[in-house]
User: Fold this.
Amino acid sequence: MKKVKKLLSAILLGILVITAAGTVMAANDPYTYKVRIFPGNNGTADSGDCIEMAGIPAGTRVTVAYTDKTISLDGQTITLNDDVKYFIRGIRESGADALASVSFTVDRDMDFVAAYGMRATAVEYTVRFVVQSTGQVLGTASFFGNVGDKPVNAAEHFDGYRPLYNNITGTLKDPAESANVWDLPYVVSEANTIIETIVEEGTTPGGGTTPGGETTPGGETTPGGETTPGGETTPGGETTPGGETTPGGETTPGGETTPGGETTPGGETEPGGEIIDIDDVPETVPTTEPTTEPATPTPAPEPGRTISNGAKAGIIAAAAAVAAIFIGVGAKRSKK
Assistant:
């Protein structure tokens, strides 16, 4: 009986060990997903029925590259069969009508289908990748679509810069109404920004006062006063609270940073997000130089009717003299 109990205990222990090992292996090997794109009736995949990217960990961002003739994913390509009659508009998720984002985060198995349009009714549109602070154009990409379409295009990589949005979209308009040029904003990468601190001879960092009454950058000292870091000294030696300045930024009173976004070196506040919709961005109206209307000239007085100030004074003096004469004559008559 004891031998049977020992045997059962050994079997149970073995089951527990195998189960625990399986749990650890599962934890170290999480489930992965796959993305597939099917060519539909107007294209051909170079790797079989579809192009596929497998073994994708959850949370991974995948970007699909496409032109009006090809779609590429993980080194595989779908090629348009008849590039005279049709063009590639983008991709759409299986079962959906709307065009899908071409840069997305994978959280499940995803199937897409190539979306096509008739080239005879196509309009060209351009995406410009622009540095937000300077307006510098890092690059451009041209695509085709139909008026009324809302295509989605992904940001491209440029060394030293990063996009504020992963995708850009908008409604295509008739070329007679709009040039269909969209700007996707970029900012300088933080890794590409170098901030230097320079300490001048005879000064101490942070606005301290050196012997001899000289004030280092950051504050102004009046006689009898002491300068606090970054502060300004008021007459009589009383120091007002100083502010702390972020690299390239603007200092608020007391050095507090107001909420509203992430500040990059250079003081820009970034909105950022998954996608920017051009339909929500107001169009920039070209400014024109203000025209100054000529002042309306004051009509000149008619000849013969103008009386100068000197003439007026003379008339008043003459009237006063005549009045004095009449008064004098009246006084003499009353004495008689």
